[in-house]
Design brief:
Shape: elongated
CATH architecture: Alpha-Beta Complex
Oligomer: single chain
Strand content: 35-45%
Structural class: alpha+beta
CATH class: Alpha Beta
CATH superfamily: Molybdopterin biosynthesis MoaE subunit
Order of helices and strands: EHEEHEEEHEE
Distance between the termini: 35 Å
CATH topology: Aldehyde Oxidoreductase, domain 3
Radius of gyration: 16 Å
Length: 150
Amino acid sequence: MPSHDRALIALSAEPLDAEALAAQLAGPMHGAVVTFLGTTRATSPGDPRPVAALEYEAYADLALREMETIAGETRARYGPLEIALVHRTGRVALGEPSVAVVVAAPHRGAAFDACRYAIDALKSRVAVWKREIYADGGAAWIANTPQEPC
């Protein structure tokens, strides 16, 4: 019988493949696989300048350790489940994913709730920093902000 406690945790300088992550987690014990992709958008809230790309830097040891902690918390709250947390580093073009969270669980409610919890925790706690590169040549570091619960 497959395990329900697998976590795929990574930082990647390469483009993210959510379908491959979902395929690694999916199985006969899971009735739901939920995927969240955070993608680079052309505008930033409160800043009228068009965004050309994002650049991410991470403190790898700290970031990966915190991502493992978040995966464990997510399983404890919503398990049994399997989870992938992968964040890009380096330059990310418009429309490309910067972060992927995939959750496979027996039921959709737990999968959706776990995915939401994991991305919100990742955005507010993981040592990854985002720099917006603007079409006009300017750039600015942007603070991560946790989302308000729905």
